[in-house]
Design a protein that fits this description.
The protein contains six helices and seven strands, in the order αβββαβααβββαα. By secondary structure, it is an alpha+beta fold. Helix 3 runs antiparallel to helix 4.
Length: 175
C-alpha cells in the first residue's frame, strides 16, 4: 500500500456513505502478534454493499467452484466479483477509499443480514434506537449490544420484576 494512503487513514475510524446505498468503514487493527505499534498495525476496511438473493450464488462461489453458505475466505473470491467491486468503488465512494479497495489484493466476502423488529412496543417495554434493528455490526455497536442485552433481559424477567422494581426506587420510597 502506498505510504500516502496509509497516512491518510492513520489513527482514524473513517466512514463514508456509498452513492447507491451502503457504507464503507476503514480503521486500524493490530498487526502480527497483536502488535499495536505505529507502522505494524494493519488497515482494515469493510464495505456494506447490498446484494440480491439472485447475486449471492455467484458471490459465494470460490475459485474452486465450491459454493459457500455465508462467506468466502481471503483469496477465495473469483475475479469477476472482485473486479466489479473495484469498479463500483471508483464510482461510489471517496477516491482514497476506492484506492484502498483497489490496492487490496485478496478481499474476502461475508454476508450480513439485517433483521428489523416487527414491533417496537411489548407490554411495558419499548425498543428505541439501536434496539430496533440487529444491524449493529460495526466495531463500536456490537460490544454495546452485547452488554445491553443481558441487562435488558434481567429487567424484563418475570421472577425478578418485583426485586428490580424495588431496587430502582430510592430507599425513602420503600415500605
Amino acid at each position: 500500500m502506498p505510504d500516502d494512503l496509509a497516512f491518510f487513514f492513520d489513527d482514524k475510524f473513517t466512514f463514508c456513505d456509498a452513492r447507491s446505498g451502503g457504507h464503507i468503514l476503514v480503521y486500524l487493527i493490530p498487526g502480527e502478534n497483536a502488535d499495536t505499534t505505529a507502522g505494524k498495525r494493519l488497515l482494515n476496511w469493510v464495505w456494506y454493499v447490498h446484494a440480491s438473493e439472485a447475486e449471492l450464488p455467484e458471490l459465494l462461489t470460490d475459485k474452486d467452484c465450491r459454493h459457500h453458505h455465508s462467506s468466502l475466505p481471503q483469496g477465495g473470491a473469483t475475479e469477476a466479483p472482485v473486479a466489479a467491486l473495484r469498479d463500483r468503488a471508483q464510482r461510489e465512494i471517496h477516491p482514497r477509499m476506492a484506492q484502498l479497495v483497489s490496492s487490496t489484493p485478496d478481499p474476502f466476502i461475508q454476508t450480513i443480514i439485517d433483521i428489523v423488529a416487527p414491533r417496537t412496543v411489548f407490554g411495558r417495554a419499548c425498543l428505541l434506537g439501536d434496539g430496533l434493528s440487529s444491524s449493529g455490526h460495526t466495531r463500536r455497536e456490537l460490544p454495546q449490544k452485547r452488554r445491553a442485552i443481558p441487562c435488558f433481559s434481567r429487567k424484563l424477567s418475570p421472577k425478578r420484576k418485583e426485586e428490580s422494581h424495588r431496587r430502582s426506587r430510592p430507599s425513602s420510597w420503600r415500605k
